[in-house]
Design goal:
This protein is an all-alpha fold. The chain is 58% helix and 0% strand. The radius of gyration is 14 Å and the shape is globular.
């Protein structure tokens, strides 16, 4: 899992553990092109991709639910 999660003194729900494990296994940043040009910076693209994966895994219907959740 993410190394920093072990340092936190917080117990994750089973669903959040599933999201963390899935993100670690997928390593989505490997599949995003190193795009240099006009548009969103590469780091933001990784964050957006991870958010979409989390949203789908948690079965959230809106992006707002992910931000509040």
């Amino acid at each position: 899992m993410f190394p920093f999660l072990a340092e936190l003194d917080v117990e994750l729900t089973p669903k959040l553990k599933e999201v963390a494990t899935l993100l670690e296994m997928l390593q989505i940043e490997r599949f995003l092109p190193d795009y240099r040009g006009v548009g969103r910076p590469s780091k933001d693209r990784v964050a957006l991709a991870r958010a979409f994966i989390a949203k789908a895994t948690l079965n959230l219907s809106t992006t707002e639910a992910l931000m509040i959740g």
